[in-house]
Amino acid sequence: MTLLTSTPARSRPLNPHLFIWQRLGAGTSLLFLFITAVLTLAPIAYALTTSLRTPAESFTLPPQWIPVSPDWSNYQAVFTTVPFGAYLLNSGIVTVSIVIGQLITSSLAGYAFARFDFPGKDALFWLILATMMIPLQATIIPVFVEISRAGLADTRASLVITAVGTAFGTFLLRQYFKTIPNEYEEAALVDGAGHLTIFWSVYLPLVQPGLAVLAVLTFNSHWNEFLRPLVFLKSVDKFTLPLGLVSLQGYLGTGSISVVLAGVILSLIPVLAVYLLGQRYLIEGIMLGGLKT
Amino acid sequence: MAASRRPNVGTFAIGAWLTGDTLAALARRKMVLGYLFVLPTLLGIVVFTVVPVIGSFGLSFFRWSVIEPAQFTGLANYQQFIHDQRTLHSFVTTAEFVVIAVTLQIVLSLLLAISTQQVKALGLRYFFRSAFFLPLLTSAASISIVLAYMYDQDFGVINYYLGFLGIPRVPWLNAPQWALVAIILTYVWEQIGFTFIVFTGGLGSISRDVLDAADVDGAAGWKRLWLITLPMLSPTMLFAAVVGVIGALQLFAEPYVMTQGGPGDATRTVVMIIYEAAFQNLQIGYASAVAVFLFLVILLVTAAQFALSKLWVFYQ
Fold first, then answer.
1. Considering its fold, how many domains does chain A have in total?
2. Is the pLDDT assigned to residue A96 strictly greater than 50?
3. What is the predicted ipTM?
4. Mean pLDDT over residues B183-208, rounded?
5. What's the domain range around B40?
6. A245: which chain B residues are within 8 Å (Cβ-Cβ)?
7. Which of A17, A82, A160, B65 has its CA 20 to 30 A from that of B120?
């Protein structure tokens, strides 16, 4: 309904009926936004406030939306009842390794596809781009066979190695490198810089927003990923957070959900921090890439 | 070691060929560097995507339980597949899920994006954007845990509040027809932020001139939305629909955590069938056949969306 009121100054409210409808429309749409915002925030608020209730009353209704006397013991219990510290560390190591790996491989490849000429370049680029269409399920069985044959079954390394080459990242950074004019390279060549220097000290700093976008998106998707760790990892001490939380939920049953929810909240903090660091680049990055994580 | 220290004519030649000061040597250096730069990505993608996707196709013609050697069985896995009621049912369930979830996701996030754009107060607009975006940061696994608690029939918050509206307790996760609804709502909750951002970006890129011209021509309000904004946004909608459908067809974590595919098989999706066949029942060949078929479905649906888009997408 607000759609009516986008430019109130210009939509000349000469007709009083129209004016009333506009005000009404704006009100309805604000109400719609508020209700949706409450609904999107509610599960996270519920997880947070319930994690601060004692396990005994965690399932008691009504839910306590404002923690009057927060009970922090669940945040200790989650570390003592399950190897939550190990889950946190495993997720951290795996995710950060994938992020760094992807930043290196895709900045190199993106730079080459944007700025070098070599026979077969277009064919290779389209091959890489086409693989973005392939869903995980169409590859995960043979990939599992490959890592088992390579002796990497049930290792955190298997999650990293198989995720370091990225079609999306290559495409995204190529788009960023393409926006930078050739003059930088010519100027650097005149100054006697080699191609590696030009890549590293001239172009890479200029695509920093692209690197930030890729880092945030990759961190988010691999910190939260479920299917690959579920298939690749067997030992509990190697579990990443999502796997660990699911096993924690099964292990504790419905007995003390506040401990499980403390784990959920803890697992959200790193990804929130990374997002806050990179958010200003994010929207333009998603639009420029025109693609999902 | 000794061999490598011996002066080698060939090395010198290649060295000069590459390091020379001529323009040709410069181009050759860029060429070699180009291959070197692309190599790590190419290796990763060939070894862990291209070869495996061909491997899945190959494995789908074999009977293989990992323990015993693989045995070529031709199309037997595909025959088993078209007679397997459980697998066929998972395709129906997944299709129902995709149609409802993606439609809800797109309609809701489009309304949200248009409404948020109208909000004048910057702080309020920022609040709404953050609220709609926040779910994107959560993992499917952990939010499924949280919502499973909230959906609980007796102790869940959702039924508690619905009770105030006089609605009797809904068996969200315990009744076949409700379980799919619960999973659809969970999925839409998670995904809405992504489509919201895509639409917000799309709205922002509609040029001010076009909108002003519409105003001058007297197209305001609904008329402007219908005749100008939505057509200008249609390429963005196509993108959201394509990406949304591809993602939804791969639904796994939510039913795995919330319902384990149940009650019965009510929420068993195609990817759950693949996972169970491959990694629990060790029917590698059969799982590969289902995976190959799902991949074909994804390709076909995507191609159909692009083909149909000619009817409704407006390119400036």
1. 2
2. yes
3. 0.85
4. 89
5. 2-48
6. 141-142, 145
7. A17
